[in-house]
Each structure stands twice: as structure tokens, then as C-alpha cells.
Amino acid sequence: MVGGGNDAFIGGVHRMAARLDDRYELLAGALSSTPEKARASGEALGLERIYSDFQQMAEAESAREDGIEAVSIVTPNHVHCAAATAFLARGIHVICDKPLTSTLDDAHRLVAAAEQSQALFILTHNYTAYPLVRQAREMVAGGDIGSVRVVQVEYPQDWLTEPQDIKQALWRCDPVQAGAGGGIGDIGTHAFNLAEFVTGLEVESLAADLQAFVPGRQVDDNAHVMLRFGGGARGMLWSSQVAPGNENALRIRVYGDKGGLEWVQENPNRLLYTPFGEPQRVITRNGAGAGAAAARLSRVPPGHPEGYIEGFANLYSEAATAIEAARDGTPVPDDVLYPTVHDGLKGVQFVAACVASSRDNAAWVTL
Amino acid sequence: MVGGGNDAFIGGVHRMAARLDDRYELLAGALSSTPEKARASGEALGLERIYSDFQQMAEAESAREDGIEAVSIVTPNHVHCAAATAFLARGIHVICDKPLTSTLDDAHRLVAAAEQSQALFILTHNYTAYPLVRQAREMVAGGDIGSVRVVQVEYPQDWLTEPQDIKQALWRCDPVQAGAGGGIGDIGTHAFNLAEFVTGLEVESLAADLQAFVPGRQVDDNAHVMLRFGGGARGMLWSSQVAPGNENALRIRVYGDKGGLEWVQENPNRLLYTPFGEPQRVITRNGAGAGAAAARLSRVPPGHPEGYIEGFANLYSEAATAIEAARDGTPVPDDVLYPTVHDGLKGVQFVAACVASSRDNAAWVTL
Amino acid sequence: MVGGGNDAFIGGVHRMAARLDDRYELLAGALSSTPEKARASGEALGLERIYSDFQQMAEAESAREDGIEAVSIVTPNHVHCAAATAFLARGIHVICDKPLTSTLDDAHRLVAAAEQSQALFILTHNYTAYPLVRQAREMVAGGDIGSVRVVQVEYPQDWLTEPQDIKQALWRCDPVQAGAGGGIGDIGTHAFNLAEFVTGLEVESLAADLQAFVPGRQVDDNAHVMLRFGGGARGMLWSSQVAPGNENALRIRVYGDKGGLEWVQENPNRLLYTPFGEPQRVITRNGAGAGAAAARLSRVPPGHPEGYIEGFANLYSEAATAIEAARDGTPVPDDVLYPTVHDGLKGVQFVAACVASSRDNAAWVTL
Amino acid sequence: MVGGGNDAFIGGVHRMAARLDDRYELLAGALSSTPEKARASGEALGLERIYSDFQQMAEAESAREDGIEAVSIVTPNHVHCAAATAFLARGIHVICDKPLTSTLDDAHRLVAAAEQSQALFILTHNYTAYPLVRQAREMVAGGDIGSVRVVQVEYPQDWLTEPQDIKQALWRCDPVQAGAGGGIGDIGTHAFNLAEFVTGLEVESLAADLQAFVPGRQVDDNAHVMLRFGGGARGMLWSSQVAPGNENALRIRVYGDKGGLEWVQENPNRLLYTPFGEPQRVITRNGAGAGAAAARLSRVPPGHPEGYIEGFANLYSEAATAIEAARDGTPVPDDVLYPTVHDGLKGVQFVAACVASSRDNAAWVTL
Q1: Counting one residue from B and one from D, how many pairs have CB atoms under 8 Å apart?
Q2: pTM over 0.80
Q3: Could you tell me which chain D residue has the CA closest to the CA of A8?
Q4: CA quadruple C334, C336, C338, C340: dihedral, nearest 10
Q5: ipTM score for this prediction
Q6: Does the pLDDT at position C7 exceed 80?
Q7: At the fourth CATH level, which superfamily is domain D130-301+343-359?
């Protein structure tokens, strides 16, 4: 693991996610950009192979017989590119947090690095691995709602309603570390990715109106985006970090000419499905009405809630299966899905397009 | 009453709303543009004074000693202007369905007619008279959520997901009768009006992307609109008639720098209020946490749901109070609120701006 | 109308309910047991025929050519019997609030009076007239959930959590006016009636544990009751007036060997239906999945909420249809349903059985 | 681990729960009562120390220098006593699934064994370790709802609505393996334990009406129980395995003279709290309004749902802390809570009392 030291949040989530299904072992780490903190954090986790930076770690691990097979990169955004490249160049698989990079240049560089490498690159758009998100995707693909017309996706939070000086907030609001997009990069990319993942459609152009409501904030904390998808579907995306009463209320609604779907991250064990002209159905994770795609990623019976960590763990398990297939030289099963470096590039392009559109008074920008 | 014959929907609602609080008596009607239907419909309601058209009715009633004091106009949109003008010109108060008119020219004409008349003009944006909508408005005005930053308002339906040939659908999808806006005129105006009513802010400009998804439909059945309010707040408005699983899911969320509010028409007896940094509160109609504005418009104890007809009746009662005040030459109490002809003009301007913006590839249009 | 003076609650509801569908006209009243208040209340309603007591009213009205055809009795419980008898004896139809009477003796007396009269007796167990309660009943009768096994019904409130000295509370907590049952009589009878109405089953025996939690209260404010139905179904009934967070949270759940149903009064426009082994469906009032029984009692399209007053008005309209049929000598249509004096007797028997069981340490008592 | 072989359900949950916080290592197992299956299951998990029965395992492990420090027992109920005793007798800590045993005799035997042992005994009433259950307990203890009056607890499921012949169902419906209680033992004990845990009160007596609705079933699949708590509070408990539409809908509501609380397992990240006379508040896990007890057991920010596995893992972590304290000879911190063998005895006594009461026509039985 690179990043994820003592006072980080997402690093701990990655570790729990990796552990849950018992398919990973944490062997080495460069857990902070500050060498002392990297050491202290590594010791706190009982690591034996502690490195002071990712470069050193990539070199040392690739040189060992028993070196790591894969690395998790959970640093602030601006470090992703260099860190991932260091491992990819040495054939070590990379599991990397989103957004892919803080700049579009970095994103292209990282795509090139991934393409040149034999190693896999998995981007943790974790929401794509919730069982009922898979169910929704499968239903759209299977024609259950007909031809998609309208996509409403939103990710409101409230934690940045006032200025915050905790570490989590500081780097996310710093354009150097986070990139030009603030909320649109941190959570808007999740919403964007989810919309494409569930519908199987691609956003072709967008018009964005970004704001920084909190005085002094250098990046957006609220974003309104109109979307045009290939094939004619239209959508709206809203991300906000200043919407009191919303914690992590990622929500997607997809409407086609035969039906509609609705899913909410805060209660992810229910998927609302309405075939046009019939009563709404409540599909539960692993319950009646849920299909193979959801069941494959469920651990416990319906009615026993699974949540954020389980969804994240699903993505780690998908990655594990892909890594094992790579090790064995066998094909990855068709139903194993994970976001790739190309999805990551699209996310960074999405952020860049939103920023560009917003600067041009919400003019349409082609993706 | 003008319009509201046997096969209409909204006329019956107006009649129930007028009856509920026992402040109106239905005396006369020109209930259809077809004389035979006007007669049959009037007889079905037991009316004695049945007219074959609104012109005849306005003349005859204004000539009677015991002529009607107010008229409800519940025809398709394109008739509003002429009908309302006929009564206003004769000093008869007008309660008129929304949108104000089918064209902007008509809207200006009607404003002029109302300004020249001593009679009142009340537009039935009925959602403004739900007790908890009043509560929300009062809370925003009272500073409970601080300075407004973000407004998310939406009104999705699904009844026009497929082509419909019932009367209700036909005139609403006909630009001659409905105006250039389809869904944006029929339900988008409600959402627009509600956003302004609750926040006390005015939309200054908008960018709209309208679609007609159902083949052959001549007016929009889905609209995505970005809003910029005076004072810097931003918003999104979504109206749709092709969103399966939504019946009349009007919903407004308002976020300020101190808190957030959320209200949904389909379950209108709850208002969610989150002071930033505190748990969300569920304010119930007439229950703990609800103030005078909500209590004044409630009839039954909390927990006993009131609904659409009661909300509509509240507006009729507001109108009755204003009419009585006009009759007595006394001022209308401050807490009596109803949408005016000027609100109606703004609604028609909103529709025109959406249509113009959408034709110009969602460019910003000033309201 | 008898009872329902200025400071009463339910009288106003009856009047709105009677007015909503325009099938009643309020002509006369003895609105209070205090003659001055009766007069003042009558004048406030604009009544011309104001009586100082029900006896005088029954005599005078039955003597008039244009006397009232039906009377609403909305007094405290202990007056129901005498008042209803006075009108029934003179052939005037009676619409009477629940519970039927305050004592079992009175209940039997009133049944006898009703049986001897040509006039109709309608008891306002208003919840039976919610459209989706009818839907539920129809579904159970139609076998949609198979053979009923379990019935969970509850009616929690919180308004008597602390001692209250408003009139509404005082008579309800006075055994002389209310009867031996407090909450079990006031709201438990609704729950009991609803359970029988929806399932079509009859409670054969019960075991009840009643409490008066508020110090000094002479009647129960919380009741736990186990139910055994004919045919082998079992149930639980809970009524409470001391459950903070509950306003009028009447809720019924019925489970059979093929499916389950759930309905909640506070959001009465949704009925949850789960065919065993399939996803839960959300049936909306007048929407997809709702049948003729619900549609017949709906006024506005699905998604526009109807509530308590509409449900009450439905019962008044059922009564109106029955009264018209009686007037015309035609049969009442099969789908017209209203609670009768016999249902009322069962309610009073239910209260008596609960009180007796509770006094005998919750022993089983046969109904 | 003892039990939890290839086709078991709960064993896998225990393993994930133990793994999540990285405080356990799975070293040895007797995963099935069938030696071949025990071997196959152990190998599937990559175990090196595989035993064919728990007796052999207890002996061998206690003899090793590096023997296990604690054992998880996840067999059917009738094996708990003997298995746990084997380990306790050798000083190995026991984490055991509920109910404690299948018979009251066994329960007393196991209590004695635990009392004689230095080793700890932890019973996995996992629901007690949900963060918001801890929050609720803390609020009741802190007086937030005043003196407790009413407790409504229920655990409905639907999976046994029809006869099932999967292994999970077969042993649970077999009185030899499960004990005299069917659903009341399997899920009713959870509800009972939760009621006592949250309120801090003890059930003193109960009256139970148990049914086996599915033809041929030898144990209850539905139970209605009235409860009397020490101090005067009253309650109802409902457990059912035949309630279509319920998956694992464990729900508890507690009402005191100052407020009410409600928590539902299927959406465990919300706790509804109503101070009497104020609006209901929605306390979220780790969010505003949640206190130290909930925060201590939360891993991710509010709005990111945690679920069943996390709750289970919390209990494993509580156990780990207690085991470490025992190892170090230090006291267990006050806020570390887990159900003990005595809680387990109470659960078995509860089942026995329910069965006895039901056989005696729901007479009151003292606990």
C-alpha cells in the first residue's frame, strides 16, 4: 500500500476491503509521504517491509522473490500518476483510488504506462461493485427498462458546508493536490462513472455550472451538470459538498421507455424497479427479484444489510480474480468487472470538461 | 365555473376544494366549449344557471343582482386569457388554473386586464398552499437555513411515457392549446413557482435542455434546466412526464449555509429539516416543530394525513378571505398568500425562456 | 348534527367529510349539551334550526315536512345510545361516531333500537373507507395472500404521554363518558375493526394486558392484546397513547401462506404487497395495481395524496348511497360498505373483553 | 472454529467478522460433524490444523505451545454445550453462536463450566454490537427517553413460509438439534436479548402464544409474547418465520415518559429519536447526534452504510479486547460490552418459558 497512513481515511477502508474475503495479504507499505509518518504508520499496522517512498518500494519489492504482486495506491490525487507508473513499470498490478489523476496530462501519461505494462490497473470506483448496482446494470442491459431516455444522478454531501481544516478536507480543496475539480473530482466522478456503468451509455457532451460557495474555497463545492449521452439520452448530474442533511447520498435514477430504476447508496440493499404501468417493485440484495449479478457479490442473506465496506471488498475480489487469471494465464470470467485506467481517463476528462464548460458560462463541451 | 365539464379532471378538484371549507357556493357554469356538453355537465351538477360560453356567462352574471362574485376558470390554457378578461372587465374575481396563458402575448394582455380591474386574480399554484410548504417558506424567511445556496426542484411523472389519446393528454401535448411548453408548462411551472415561493428568491437566468422523447410529440415531455437566482443561489429543475415510477413526485430541496430543507408532494405531511451539524428533524404538519403558518392551514391533528384536495382548498380559502376583504374594503391579512397574475406572468416567461434557451442549445436566457 | 360544537374536533371532520362530495346539506343541530354553547355553535355554522338537545331536535325534525333525513352523532361516547335511539325511533338515519357506546348494556340497547327501526345506522370506523384498505380487503378476499395466518395491528399515539387537560383528553380519560376502556376504546376499537374488516375473519378470543401509565389516569393508555381468529389465524394488537414519536400511526400487516400486505394510515396512499418469493410491490391509490374497490373511492390521480378527510368522506358517501337506496326502495350496491350497529356492538364487546381479560391477569376471554 | 463447514451459512459470517478488524487468525478447525466434510471444508479454507471433531481439537490445541487462544463455535444448537465445555475446560476462550444451548439443562451445565473456567465466554448476540443499538442503550441509560414504559420488539422473517429442505432450515426445525423453540429460539432470543440490552431492564414474566403454521412443522414458526419488565414496563415480542415481505426485519421501539426510540436492523444506520413534544430526529451512525458509544464501533463516515458483517465484527473486536485484557491481566474497559454465558442462560430460559406458557394456553410464566 502506498498512502493510507495513520490519519488517512480511505486507506483503512482499502485494507478492510482487501481483508474481508481473505484474498490479499498486506506485506509492505509506503504509507505516507513523510518518512517518519510512513514508518510509524507501517509499524502501527505490524508491517515488516516499510518504505519511506513509493519509488523505493517499487524497486525493492520488484527485486524480491517474494515481492508484492499488487499495490494499493491511496494517496491524494496528484501522486497517483507517478506512484502507479513506478509499479506498473515493474509489472506490479495497481489498485488505485479515484480520480485517476489530478491533471489530464497525468491521466494520459498513466494510460500510456498502463498500456505498456503487463500488469493490471484497477480503479476503485467502488460504487460499481455494490450488488444492486450490478443488478441495475444487468437489468438495463437486458432491456428491462427499454431504451434509456433520462438519467438523474446526484451525489450530495454536507461536510464542507463550512470551512474545514482537517486533513481530509484540506487536500481535497487544494487544486494542486486534488486537481482543478473539487467536489466534481472527488464525488462528481463517482456519479459520472456510475451513470455510464449502469446505463452502458457514454456521455458525449456536457454543460456545467460549478460554484465555490464557501468563501475562499479554490475549487467547486457544488456542481450542476447537464448531460447528453450517445443514443439520445439526456441527464442531469448534481454533486455538492454543501447540502446540509446529506451525508453520502449518491443516488441514480434511470428511465427508459419501458420502465425505471432507482438506487440510493445510503440504503444500498434496495433497488426500486417500476415496469411502466405496473406497481413499483422493491428488489432486495440477494432477495427475490435479484439476479445472478447481484447474488455473485452478496455474502449474507437478504435483509441482513451489506454496505460500503462490502461493496469496496467486492471490487477487491474482482481485482483478485483478475490478478489470479493473469497469474495463471487464463481469461478473466465475463462477469468479473472493474473500472480500468480508461474509465479513469474518462473521469479526468469529465472533470476537465466540467471546469472548461463552467469557465465558458456553461457552454456545451464535448467529451 | 368555466370549463370543468364531465370528462375533465381538474374542474372536479376545484369544486371539491371550494366546497371543503364551506366558503363558496357553485351557482353558475359554462362548463365546456361545446354547448351541449356545457348543458349536460351543468345539469349533472344540478346547476340552474347554465351558459353555453364564458362570454355569455360573464355578461349575464354581471347583470344579475345575485350574480356570481367570483369565477373559477379551469379550461385548457389557451382559453384562460379571454375568459379571465371577460370576467375581470366586469368586476368579477377570477380564480384561474395555471399556467396563466398559452402565450406570452396573452399573459401580458391578462396582466393588463387584471391591473385595470378592481377584481382580484388568483392563480392556482396549489402546491404553495400545502401547510408544510408554508412552513418551509417561513423557515427560509426566518433564517433557519441561513443564506440560500442551492435549490433542487423536480416534478417527475410517468403518465406520458407512451402516447396517450385521452383528452387530458391530448390538449396538454397540443402546442395550440397548451402553449409552446409541454411538460415544462404543465408541471415545470409548478416547480419553478414553488422554488421561488419557498426561497423568496427570483430566478434571474436559466439554461434549458428540453426533449420530446415520445415519437411524434410536438412539445417537451422532459426538461432539464439550470437556474441562477438573484443573490447568487444556483439551482436545477427537472420536469418529466416520461419517468416510470413517478406519479406526481414534486420535490423541493433547499440548502443554505446553516441548514437544509426537503419536502415531497407525494407525502406532504412531513418536512425534513437539518440544521447543519445536527440530526435531521422530521417536522409534521400541525405537529411538533410546525409553526403558525402551517397550523393556520391545517384541519386535522398531526398524523392524520391531509393531501392534494386540502392543499387546493387552502388556496380557495385564502382567496375567499381576500375576496371578503375586498368586499368589506378591509386589508387582506398579512399571512394570507396566493399566487397573483404577476406570478402567472413569470411562469409564462419561464416557459418562454426555457423554450428559447433549448432552441439555442441551452444558452443562458435572462428572465 | 348532534355534538360537534365549537371546541370539538371530530365534529368539524364530519362536516367536511359530508361536504366534500356534495351529497349532504347541514340543516339542523344540537351541537352541545350546554344549551348556550349549542346555540353559539349553531350560529357560528350559520344554522337556522338550532336545538338545545338531541331529544328536542329528534322530535322537531321528525315533525317537519322538510325535516332532516339523517343525523350525525359526534358526542362523547356515553351519549351515543340515547341520542341515536331518539332518531332511530323516528325513522331518521343515524351516522354515529365510534365506539358505539360507553357500556355493553347501551350497546345491546342500541342494537335493539336499530333493529326495530327502518332507518339505517352507520358507524364511522372511517379507516375502513380508505381506498387502499378496501384494496387490501379485496386482495385478501381474492386469495392474493392465501390463507391468513398472522395479523399484526397497532395504533400508537403520543398525545397523552403526559397528563392533558384539554377537553378532547378529559372526556376520553373519564370512564363515565368514555367507558371502561380508554385508549382501547378510542383507538383500539379502530384497530380491532380494521383487522376484521381487512381479513374478513372474526376474533374469537383475546388476552389483554392494559395499563394506565400516566399517574392518576383512570383508564388504559396502553394495551397489549393477543388475538385468536376463527380459522386459526393469530394476531397481536397494540394501542397506545403514550408512545412518543407516533401521531396516528395506525398500521396493519396481514400475512397468509401466499403473501403479505402492509398499510399505514399516516401514508395511506401506498399498500405494500409481497407475493411470497417475489419482490415487494408498492400499490398506489388509484395507480397501477390498484383495483376497482380502491378506484371507486379515489378522487384524484395517483401521486396526488388523499388523506383522512377523504377517507371519512368516502364513508359519508357510502352512507349517502345507502340512504338514497333506502329512499328509493332499491338495493344497496354490493360494493357499498359501511360499519353497522353490529360492528359497533362487536367493538364494545371487544373493549369489555379486553378490560375483563386484563382484570383477570390477561386470561383468554371469548368474544 | 468448530462447525461452519462448506454448506453452512453462519460460519462464513463469523470468519469475515473475525477478519475485518484484523485481530484474529484462523489456525485450526473441526468444521463439520462428518469427518470427511470437516477435512474438505478445512482444506477449502487452507487450514493446516484440521480436526475431525471438537474433542480432538480441544485436546490437541490445548497441548500445543502455539495452540489457539480462542475458538468460535458455530454448530447447530445441540452441540454448543459439549463443544464449549471441551474448550473452556482447557482454558481456551469460547465465542459461541446463540442460542446458548438446545436445552435448559445444557444451559445450566454450560454456565457451570464457564464459571469454573478462567476462559471467557462470549455469546454472539451480534445485534447488540450495531453502533446505533449501542447509541440507543446509551440514550436510555442516560435518561433521554425518561422512564421506560413500553417496549415493542419484533423479528419477522419469511423464509419458512413454505416447507424448506435446505440444511439451514432442517436443523432449525428439528427439536432435537434446535431445542423446543423453533423461531422463538432462533430469532426470538435475539429480540428478547435486544430488548433487555437496549433498555437495561429485565423481563420478569411473559405470556406466549406459539404456533407452527406450516403443516408438519414440529417447532413454532410464529410467536406472540406479552412481556412484563421489572420496574413496570410492558412489552410485546413477535417473532415469525412465515411473514412474507420480511427478510430479517428485527425492529425495536422503546417508549418512555420523555421520549421514544426506534431502530430497524434492515436499515441499521439510522436511529429515530423523538423527545416528547419535539420533532423526531434521525440520528445517523457516526453522524450528528451519535455519541461515543456509536462512534467507537464505526469504521466509515456517516452516509456510508455499515451492516450485518460490521456489527458482527464489532462483537468479535469487543471479544478480542477482552481476550487481550485477560491475557495481560488488565481490566476490560468499561465500554467494552458482549453477551455472556449468563445472557445465554436467560435466552434459553426465555425459550423454555415461552414454550411452557404456550402449552399452558399462554398463562404467565415467571422468568
Answers
A1: 32
A2: yes
A3: D300
A4: -40
A5: 0.95
A6: no
A7: Dihydrodipicolinate Reductase; domain 2 (3.30.360.10)
